[in-house]
Write a structure and sequence with these properties.
Layout: E1 2-6, H1 10-18, E2 24-26, H2 29-33, H3 39-49, E3 54-57, H4 63-76, E4 80-85, H5 88-99, E5 104-109, H6 112-121, E6 125-128, H7 130-135, H8 140-153, E7 159-162, H9 168-177, E8 181-184, H10 186-193, H11 196-214
Parallel strand pairs: 1-2, 1-8, 2-3, 3-4, 4-5, 5-6, 6-7, 7-8
Helix pairs in contact: 1-3, 4-5, 5-6, 6-8, 8-9
The structure holds erythose-4-phosphate.
């Protein structure tokens, strides 16, 4: 499974990229709003750090504006993927852009029916938001499982990005289901490292090694 970081923070992206496990980045307007720099320079800098798909979101809502915005974003760097929300205009834009070879990440996907339409429109990626589904009492990962079943039945070129990840359990479940990608916030990526038995094991080895060193 590919691992993306869900962040617009350059330091976080740089750090996780240095671990050697990072395959791409997703951003969204909320994540960009948390940073001081402007959107354009953030996106350019991310592209210089990470050699993989970098999702940048179009904020227009009408088909022609979405397409215009997407073309400008795609021109910034070859790795840019344009994030477009799942709406009727978003679908039309996705169809047009995919014909031009511009990769689309259809975002704010909350149902298998939406996912099917996004695949048919030619989206390269679809992002079901599992955490937000869990928040309203649905089982986000069950929606992912249904979407993967649909993809198994046909020959779409679409990859599933498990998004709105809240904890390492979401990531493990995504990998067990065979989701193509999980986009993971920095704090969850850090939690994936941690296990109390690893910490206790290191402490014990170091203590025991002191005894050896004293000989
Ligand atoms: C996905 O690409 C989105 O940026 C993201 O995962 C949204 O997550 P949230 O529900 O934590 O805002």
């Amino acid at each position: 499974m590919k691992i993306f970081i869900d962040s617009a923070n350059i330091e976080q992206i740089r750090e996780v990229n240095s671990w050697g496990i990072l395959d791409g980045v997703t951003t969204n307007p909320t994540l960009v709003a948390k940073e001081k720099a402007d959107f354009g320079s953030i996106v350019k800098e991310i592209c210089e750090i990470v050699d993989g798909p970098i999702s940048a979101e179009a904020i227009s809502t009408e088909v022609d504006e979405i397409v215009g915005e997407a073309r400008k974003l795609a021109a910034v760097h070859k790795n840019i993927v344009v994030k477009i929300p799942m709406t009727e205009d978003g679908l039309k834009a996705t169809k047009m852009l995919s014909k031009e070879g511009i990769k689309v990440n259809m975002t704010l996907v909350f149902s298998p029916a939406q996912a099917l339409l996004a695949c048919k429109a030619g989206a390269k990626y679809i992002s079901p938001f599992v955490g937000r589904l869990d928040d309203v009492g649905h089982d986000g990962m069950d929606i992912v499982s249904q979407i993967l079943d649909i993809l198994d039945n046909y020959d779409f070129d679409t990859e599933v990005i498990v998004a709105s990840v809240r904890h390492p359990g979401h990531v493990v479940e995504a990998a067990r289901m065979g989701a193509h990608i999980a986009t993971i916030p920095y704090d969850v990526l850090k939690k994936m490292f941690k296990h109390p038995l690893t910490d206790a094991g290191i402490e014990r080895f170091l203590q025991d090694w002191q005894k050896v060193a004293k000989r």
